[in-house]
UniProtKB/TrEMBL annotation:
Top-level taxonomic group: Eukaryota
A cellular component term, taken from the record's GO annotations: cytosol
Subcellular location: Cytoplasm, Cytosol
Reaction(s) this enzyme catalyzes, per UniProt: dCTP + H2O = dCMP + diphosphate + H(+)
Record protein name field: dCTP pyrophosphatase 1
Keywords in alphabetical order: Cytoplasm, Hydrolase, Magnesium, Metal-binding
Its EC number(s): 3.6.1.12
One GO BP annotation of this record: DNA protection
Main location: cytoplasm
Subunit structure: Homotetramer.
C-alpha cells in the first residue's frame, strides 16, 4: 500500500468505519462503471465530443474505479503496481509489436 493511500483513503474509511462493512462480495457487486464514456463509441484524445461537465463526470467515475481497485487490491493483499508491470510484460509477449501494430485482433490470431 502506498503512503499516499494511507494518507488519503484510509482516514476517510476509518472516519466512517466503512472497513467493517465493506466485503469483497459488496465490492464486486457495487463496482462503479464508466457507462457515460462506454456507450459513446471510440474514445478520442481529449474527449472533444464531451462538455466540460461530462469530462469532469468521467474523471469522477474513473476515480471511483481506481479507488475500488486500490481498496480491493489492499483487501486481497495484491501488490497492484507489481501486478500491472507483470501484465504489461505478459502483454508484450502476447501481442508482439511487429505482428500487432495497428491491429486489434485477439491474441490467438497472432500465435
Amino acid at each position: 500500500m502506498t503512503e499516499e493511500r494511507k494518507n488519503s483513503g484510509e482516514p476517510f474509511e476509518n472516519e466512517r468505519s466503512t472497513e467493517k462493512i465493506v466485503s469483497s462480495e459488496n465490492m464486486f457487486s457495487e463496482k462503479p462503471t464508466l457507462e457515460d464514456i462506454q456507450w459513446k463509441g471510440e474514445v478520442k484524445v481529449g474527449l472533444p465530443e464531451f462538455t466540460e461537465e461530462e469530462k469532469k463526470h468521467v474523471g469522477q467515475e474513473m476515480s471511483d474505479v481506481l479507488i475500488y481497485l486500490v481498496r480491493l487490491a489492499d483487501r486481497c493483499k495484491i501488490d497492484l503496481p507489481a501486478a500491472v508491470l507483470q501484465k504489461f510484460e505478459q502483454n508484450r509477449h502476447k501481442y508482439p509489436a511487429k505482428k500487432v501494430y495497428g491491429k486489434s485482433d485477439k491474441y490467438t490470431a497472432y500465435e
